[in-house]
Design goal:
Strand content: under 5%
Number of helices: 22
Largest sheet: none
Protein name: Lysophospholipid acyltransferase 2
Order of helices and strands: HHHHHHHHHHHHHHHHHHHHHH
Structural class: mainly alpha
Number of strands: 0
Shape: globular
Radius of gyration: 24 Å
Pfam family, one: MBOAT
Transmembrane segments: 27-47, 59-82, 102-121, 379-397, 417-439, 445-464
Keywords: Acyltransferase, Endoplasmic reticulum, Membrane, Transferase, Transmembrane, Transmembrane helix
GO molecular function: acyltransferase activity
Length: 502
């Protein structure tokens, strides 16, 4: 009901909230995002880099962001300034050699403090648009920037990976640039996270220059030096938002996830019906996230941010900071493929600040960081602990089984169908505690399934052999070194081609 969730922001839209029977904080959020979408078009057309200075663009983007934050969250929006201010103080007053570590601890610590007070002091059950949502995105931006400054000012060029070279920040940002990056109106409410260099390029009018892909640092082709219009992509994404919102409001209302723990439901339905209901429930729940992230992407695109080169047919791509790929999610044939296309910018953040830098068991460390970042509900930790087991089992199966199904297209199709079904069931099973939040209902659900996915995953991870990441990297390095040695000892005309293959 509309009155079931408290709102800390403006009450101006209370009549609309009562009329459509939705919580006021959700109404405020959607209206502010629609306002940001319209403002983004104005920002691109009338505050274009060719018409005004970067200073003006920074100021306007920041002030509009603070206004939207105050409208949605009231004085709780001050937490955004406090968190950003503490981190900026650490950046300025500590040595650059250890600044990134201190920033990470301070920023994550403040976010965790806000998570704890919001959940256990003010309102445990409030699971809607709340002030910690934007703080989670700001946390990603601050910690990413701290590591990028460290890479740019401390590390040697030869010690950086190709992606780290592109992301490295070579000078300390000013306070205005820093606040604009963290709190601009395009991303203050729902993100997505972007790199500091990309944002500054957008503000200063360099956003249409050649970019580099994340993978292997390869150039993303040669682009025409013109300014493409995002209108087609924005319209397409807004239509996607409307469809997703309709699916969520119609189907998920009829199939709430909480029903899977009801005694009457479990007693009156066979197990295969329970599995089917769980899949439909989760399938109809995801469009809520699709709506939020796709609308946020459309806002950034409308402002001229997010250009990522051209497709093979010459049409511009506006997916540089996109947070999801819906079709890849729904047709994912592996746990990793699902995660790689779900909340993409968060996955990149976890990869850059944790997985690539953690010397011991990076998979477990990454899942733990993800759980801490999401909040303190026990269901989050149950989900991510389960996710570790599922990830390791999926990796083991892929490493040992997949090659046996690549001999023909028919076998490959059979493998894809089986892995799609397994992935969807594993995802649904894993994220139920993430939706239920509390320990009791989550354990009740897992018991009704006899913890079968847990047991299967642990068994597969223990029985099937998988090479460690360090061993795989060492073997790849050995192959490259052997190839280079062969090229030096044999003046073969195909030497360069062999090196490229390695």
């Amino acid at each position: 009901m509309a009155t079931s969730t408290s709102c800390t922001g403006s009450t101006l839209l209370q009549p609309i909230s009562k009329m459509i029977d939705l919580p006021l904080d959700q109404v405020n959020f959607v209206v502010c995002q629609l306002f940001a979408l319209v403002t983004a078009f104005w920002f691109r057309l009338y505050l274009h880099p060719s018409k005004t200075s970067p200073f003006i663009r920074h100021v306007v983007a920041t002030l509009l962001g603070f206004y939207l934050a105050l409208f949605c969250f009231g004085w709780y929006a001050l937490h955004f300034l406090v968190q950003s201010g503490l981190a900026y103080g650490v950046m300025i007053f500590t040595s650059v050699e250890h600044m990134h570590k201190y920033c990470f601890v301070v920023t994550m610590g403040y976010l965790s403090f806000c998570h704890v007070t919001r959940v256990y002091v003010f309102d445990y059950g409030m699971y809607s648009a709340d002030f910690t949502g934007p703080m989670m995105v700001i946390t990603q931006k601050i910690t990413s920037l701290a590591f990028e400054i460290h890479d740019g000012l401390v590390k040697r060029e030869e010690h950086l990976k190709p992606s780290q070279k592109y992301l490295a920040v070579r000078k300390m940002p000013s306070l205005l640039e820093y606040l604009s990056y963290n709190c601009n109106f395009m991303g203050i409410l729902a993100g997505p996270t972007c790199s500091y260099n990309d944002y500054i390029d957008f503000i200063e009018g360099r956003g249409y220059e050649s970019k580099h892909l994340e993978t292997n640092g390869k150039e993303n082709g040669k682009f025409k030096q013109i300014e493409p219009s995002p209108k087609r992509d924005v319209i397409q994404k807004v239509c996607t938002c409307a469809l997703c919102l309709t699916i969520y409001l119609v189907i998920h209302t009829a199939c709430p996830t909480e029903r899977v723990t009801h005694e009457s439901f479990m007693a009156s339905n066979p197990f295969y019906i329970q599995v089917l209901f769980l899949y439909i429930s989760m399938l109809s729940l995801r469009p809520k996230y699709y709506f939020v992230w796709t609308l946020a992407d459309a806002i950034n695109n409308a402002a001229g941010f997010g250009f990522n080169g051209y497709n093979t047919d010459g049409t511009p791509k506006w997916d540089r900071i996109s947070n999801l790929r819906i079709l890849n999610i729904e047709f994912a044939t592996s746990f990793k493929m699902f995660l790689d296309n779900w909340n993409i910018q968060t996955a990149l953040w976890l990869k850059r600040v944790c997985y690539e830098r953690c010397p011991y068991n990076p998979t477990a460390a990454t899942f733990l960081l993800s759980a801490m970042w999401h909040g303190v509900y026990p269901g989050y930790y149950l989900t991510f602990v389960t996710g570790i087991a599922v990830t390791m089992a999926a990796r083991a199966v892929r490493h040992n089984v997949r090659q046996h199904f690549l001999g023909s297209s028919t076998l490959k199709l059979i493998y894809d169908v089986i892995t799609w079904f397994s992935t969807q069931i594993a995802i649904c099973y894993t994220v139920v505690p993430f939706v239920l939040l509390a320990v009791g209902p989550s354990i009740k659900f897992y018991r009704s399934w006899y913890c079968c996915i847990h047991l299967i995953c642990v068994l597969l991870a223990l029985v099937l052999p998988v090479k460690s990441r360090r061993r795989r990297q060492q073997e790849d390095l050995d192959i490259i070194q052997a190839s280079e040695h062969n090229c030096l000892s044999s003046p073969d005309s195909n030497c360069n081609q062999k090196q490229k293959s390695s």
